[in-house]
Structures are given as structure tokens and as C-alpha cells.
Amino acid sequence: MAPLVSVVVPFYNVEQYIAECLESLAAQTLNDIEVILVDDGSVDGSRRIAEGFASRDPRFTVVRQPNRGPGPARNEGVRWARGSYLAFADSDDVVPVDAYEVLVSSLERTGSDLACGAVRRMADGELSPSSLHDKLFRREVRRTHIMDRRALVRDRTVWNKLYRKEFWYEHRLRFRQGIYEDVPLSMRAHVLAASVDLLPEVVYHWRRREAGGASITQRRAELPNLADRLEAIRAVRSFLQEEAPELTRSFDGLVLEKDIVFLFQALEHAADDELEPLLDLARQWLAVLSPAVLATAPSLRRLELHLVERGLVKELRRVREFRRSSEEAARIVPRGLRRVGWYGDYPYFRDRSLRIPDAVYDARDEIKVLARVEECRWDGQGFAVVGEVALHRVERRPRKIEVWLSDGSRKVPLPSRRLGPGRLLAEIDPRRLRRGGPTWRLHAQVETRGLVMEGCFRDGDGSRTWRLSVPGWSRTGMDITQ
């Protein structure tokens, strides 16, 4: 009888880690699985460990092939799969015991083509959020799609997912040759799926290796690795431009946020004789990405890209060191008298020898209003709200602050007075809120040196928007809850 889930695990020289991975698979609360172990030409003790599991547990099967890389190894495993669902695990990672039970339950309930779950990074025996996945799986969303949730371009790993095998074969999904074989396939699956389930449960522990040599992804600053990553990026962009052009800019933005960093790291540590091929590869990277996305990158990233494009490696290294040494985001400062610009306070600004355009440093769009409520108290006549207002990354205190309440259709200006630098007290007369609400948000408008910005107040710890809720018409304001 065919199993419900087929789990494909390629392995190559992972003697120190594979046992922990296979133990986590053997312990799954969903017992109806098969585990297909594809030996990609290992020369250490990995095969012996895999064969030991296969000899003790009939659900485990070992398949051998010459070393061809993780993509072909996964394709070979799929060829052997008998289950209704497909899953993948890397042999140095760990799968939480209830992962496949959670994923199968979702797909059988919704009929979606794939289900995806949250991921944790694993290092030194500790788990931490995966920055790539963290914001995607904070709540359950069933039967959605990447065109409706474009942040899913970040979900480009294959092992936090469960796929219907009929969907896999219908769309002829296959892994490409090369190191970053999962990125193009993950994007194809998201676009081609009729619907996708997103689950907040953690279904995968992604290891950051501590011993036994760095993994493929940890060697990401090596030239061949960077070249292969570029090919994967090209493959994804080619597919998106044909099938889902609306997602191209989102994908390019992710490349600028995540992937390009490995290129910078390579240039930082390269020997002199390695620089020319790296710079040539870097220019190929920049030529691939959308000019619009490059132009709208954050100012410090634009400076790094500008230096790479001009081959200014020494200057790039200084800017990278500046980025790491800044405990918080670097300051944004005003420059000019009649026409005031707001620029990142980074190295080489208006350096006469380098002549980097001011536009590279332009950070006006990165400024935002930071407003929070410290205290709200009833004084017998109305509410007195004490708050703090500042501009993110700007040391200069706002010159002028106006505050008001809004229920989405009405705007009620509030009298306020300063209590000190950036602090104010606003007075709320509940009689002015009649025939409005029931929920009101507190807004601020800030003016300083030609800059005018608006923002909503948040609660004391900044975790959520601060609101006044009026459950019914209030004569005294005493029934207004916060």
C-alpha cells in the first residue's frame, strides 16, 4: 500500500548531522510516510548511517547515484516517490515531530496545491526566527496565492512545504542543476498553484552548521557559488517575466535586500587577484535587476551599489564597515538653505575627489514619524494624552507639531502644548466626538526644515496603533476605553 507522504532527503558527506535529521523523520506523529534517502556520492560515513536506518525501519529507503548535486538528487528521489504528497528535507536539518501531520491536515481540509509553514534557524542548540521567513507565517491564511500576498517571493525554500504529487507532475516541476536549485522551483510552485496554505506552526529547523565544514549556503561568498546564485536569479526572473510580471519588482527587491550582500562580502575579503572577476560578476548582477528597483533601494544600499558599479572596492569596504559599526540606523541630516535636502550621513558625502551624486545619498523617503502615547488620563472634563513625537533617524527635534483624532471620515483637531523636546500634552473633549467613531486614531503632523510628514501614534511599547474606542454615544466621555 502506498504511503501518504514521500519525504526526499538528498545527502552528501554529512556524517555529523544526518542521524539527527533521520531521527526527527522517524519520530513524526504522522506515521504513514516513506523516507527516500538519495546518496549523492558520499565518501564519508553518511551512507552507513542512512543504511542503518533503512535496515531498522522499512519506511526508509536508500538510493545511490554519482555525485551530481542536490537538484538531480532530489529529482531522483521524486522518481522513487509513491506517496500522494511530496516533502523535502536537507540532511543536516531537523523536522519537528508534528510537521507533516500539520501540513497534511491543512491540505486535506482546503484542497490547496501546497502548504507552507514557519521556519526556525538552529545553531549551537538554540532556535531563533529565520529572517527570510519570519514575517510570512505569523498567522494562518488558507487558500491564498502569491499574487494576493506578494511577500511570498521571500518563501523560496522547498523544505518548509508539502506538495500534492499530482500538482507536481501536472506542472512538470523539476530541480535545476546547480547549488541554488530550490529558488526557481519554489517560485514556479507558488505562481502555478491554484491556492496555497500558510501556517504559523514551525515545520522546519534550518541548521547553521557548527562543525564539519560550512554547508553550500554558508559558502555563499565564493565565486562559483555567486555565479550559480546569479543563474538562479536569472531563471526566476525569466519565469516571472513570462508568467507573473507583476512579481518581478518584488523579487528584485528581495535580491537587493538579501542576495547582493553575499557579493559585497566576497568583495570585502577578496585578494587583489580575485577582484576583477568578482567585479565583472557584480556588474552582471546589476545588469539583471530592474533599474526602477535599483533607483528606489535605501540610500545606504544605493551607495554600496554605486561603489561596486565604479569598481571602488576600497571605498566599498569602508562603507561596509561603517554599516556594521552603526549601532542603529545612520543619521539623516538636512543640507542646503533655500532648497533643503535630507541625506544619509555616510562616508564620502560630497567628497570632491569621488564626486558621488547627491541623489545617491537622498534619504528623504526613509524618514518617518515616530509617535507614541506615554499616558492617557481622565481629568474630570476630558482626556489628557501625554505623548512623544520624533522623526526616525533625524536628531533635530520637530519645530512644529499638530495633532488630531480621526475615525476615518472625520478629523478633529486637538489643542496641545509642548512639555519639552519632542513631548506634548493633547486635550480630548469627548463632546467633540459625538456622531463619530466608534474608534478614533491619534495622528501627528510634523514640520521641520521644509519637511512635512504625518504619522499615527502607537501605544507605549510601539507594538500597535493607539486608539480611543467609543462603544456608544458618550455624554461625559467616562465610557471611552483605551
UniProtKB/TrEMBL annotation:
Residues 6-140 form the Glycosyltransferase 2-like domain. It holds the Pfam family Glycos_transf_2. Keywords: Transferase. One of its GO terms (molecular function) is hexosyltransferase activity. It comes from the Bacteria. The keyword Transferase applies. InterPro entries: Glyco_trans_2-like, Nucleotide-diphossugar_trans. PANTHER family: GLYCOSYLTRANSFERASE, UDP-GLCNAC:BETAGAL BETA-1,3-N-ACETYLGLUCOSAMINYLTRANSFERASE-LIKE PROTEIN 1. This is Glycosyltransferase family 2 protein.
